[in-house]
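Support case: user asked for a sample of complex input and structure output to validate their parser. Sending the pair below.
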Amino acid sequence: MPGEHISQEQADEYAIGSLEPPLERGIALHLAECADCRDIVRDSERLAATLAGSSPQRRAPAKLKQRVFMAAGIRRPGPIRRALNTGRALAGVAAVFVAIGAFTGMVWMRGQLEGLRADDERLTQKIQVALSQEVEIAALTQKLDDQGKEGERLAAAATGDQELIVALLSNNTKIADVLPAEGGANSIGRLIWDDDQKRVWFVASDLPQRPPGETYQLWANSNGKYFPLGTFEADSDGFARYQTVLPGGIASYDVVLVTIERAGGSPTLEGPTVFFVQDLSRLKD
Amino acid sequence: MLAIASRDEHAFAVLYDRYIDLVYSASLRVLADTGLAEDTSQDVFVRLWNRPETFIAERGRFVSWLMSVTRNRAVDELRARGRRRKREGGPLGEPDEAAEPLFSVEAVDPQGSAELHEEQLRVRKALMGLPGEQRQALELAYFGGFTQQEIAAQLREPLGTVKTRIRLGMQKLRKSIETRD
């Protein structure tokens, strides 16, 4: 048999399994060597297989699946695992909904955030405007303060001028030339002593400015005692105008001196004399 | 099958769901015993999972191969269990009364089994179109696992008569199916 090709009839008999075992084995041996016969038998087997498929259909028991999968070494999910899987699936669905909700919330939050940012920008702009206005107000306030101080200074100057005019018009006012002491050079000055207003003015020109740490100080000698009447400075043009209220106990003067003292003034006469004034009326006496 | 060869359990589950009833029905037809049919179906699918390479696509359709494997396995089981004697004299292919009720193929897999169902109908019609003695000889051989001599003895017909019935039955069956293809 192994050397002979098989007929279609033998192939059909082989395919439906009706051959006696010895002949069946012989054909199987031949098929192992003969591709042509294998094709013939394969066609017969396909035809025979349709017989198996034509059997009345019956539903396999549901439990069989579990058996088959266990026998195949495949772990099929049991009720608990299925429940867990279902739970996982539900959790997954829930997670999707949560994610959608979170996304929607995020979009909403983003909208809110953008709105807040816009509000913040508007508020920032308003704050900046307010700050700039505040700066302008502060500048104006400062300007007003400066103008107020200038006004006060001008008012004080006007008052001083007015008081000086009053002093010059008074019969009780003494006006004396200021005499430069040695080193006083070309300076020219006047001293106005007003008994009525108890004030004294010292005016001088071509007076050099003192270096830092030094100042001019006015002194009045009355009854042999020098009283400090305050300090003053010359301006950049060398002009100095100083007025002060006479301290109590001084009704007249014997000598008025201008000395150079340390900055801030000195309680006792220490520095060199720049000007001196004698009571001319007394000299006349 | 490629997915099963790569140990894709999901693919195996899909294949099982699609063909288990076909395999079980064929097994039951041969063995006429639900327990043995279950055992045979299990063996067929476990073999499919463990040795998917035994199916070679170039040699034919998968369902033909699966039916051949099922039938051969069922007949082996039949012979091994010595059930042939028990079946002698009884109607061939009659399943146990305890078996699941008959159902239509459409109920198994309405979409995937449409082609299969059409072929089954063609084969059934072809079988029903055969003379009764030819159909009986084919069924005794294929589902009963009997050899021609055993069939002749059972039917008390000459061996040549049985061989002729089988030959003619197969020829008519082939012609009937081919003319419809």
